[in-house]
Design brief:
Blueprint: H1 5-19, E1 23-27, H2 30-42, E2 45-50, E3 57-62, E4 75-77, E5 86-87, E6 101-106, E7 109-112, H3 113-119, E8 123-129
Length: 130
C-alpha cells in the first residue's frame, strides 16, 4: 500500500528517466492525472493517458531532449503526508533561477509557481522539479 501517492509518482518518473524507459505506469487517480497534465504542459513529460487494458493505471510517456537526455534532472518533495506545507502566492518563488518549477495544489487546481503568482492564489506546495 502506498501512503504518499505524489512522492511515489515523481520518484517513478525520475527513476524511469534515469534508466531510459519511455513509458511509466502508475496507479490512476484524478489528482495524479492533473499533476501529470501540468507536467506535460511544462514540458517534463510527453504524454498522459489512461491505460486501455486497465482503467486503474495511468500511463505517462516521458520527454527527452534531442541528445536523448531525460528532461527531469531531479525532484524534491516539499509537502509530505506527515507535514503539509502551504505557500501564499507571494512566496511561491521559482526553482533553480527559473530553470525548474514548483507545483502547487490550489483551489483553482494544480498550478506552477508562475501561474500561482499570476492569479495570486496560494496552496499546498507539492514538489519542486528541475
Amino acid at each position: 500500500m502506498i501512503t504518499d501517492r505524489i512522492g511515489d509518482f515523481i520518484i517513478r518518473l525520475k527513476n524511469a528517466g534515469a534508466i531510459g524507459n519511455q513509458v511509466v505506469s502508475v496507479p490512476h487517480s484524478k489528482h495524479l492525472q492533473e499533476i501529470a497534465n501540468k507536467l506535460k504542459e511544462l514540458g517534463y513529460v510527453q504524454g498522459v493517458e489512461i491505460s486501455k487494458k486497465d482503467p486503474r493505471i495511468l500511463e505517462v510517456t516521458l520527454a527527452y531532449d534531442t541528445k536523448g537526455n531525460h528532461k527531469i534532472h531531479d525532484v524534491k518533495r516539499v509537502s509530505k503526508p506527515g507535514r503539509r506545507l502551504y505557500t501564499p502566492a507571494r512566496d511561491a518563488h521559482g526553482v533553480k533561477n527559473g530553470m525548474g518549477a514548483r507545483i502547487l495544489s490550489t483551489p483553482k487546481g494544480i498550478l506552477s509557481d508562475k501561474e500561482a503568482r499570476k492569479v495570486r492564489v496560494g496552496g499546498e506546495d507539492l514538489f519542486e522539479i528541475w
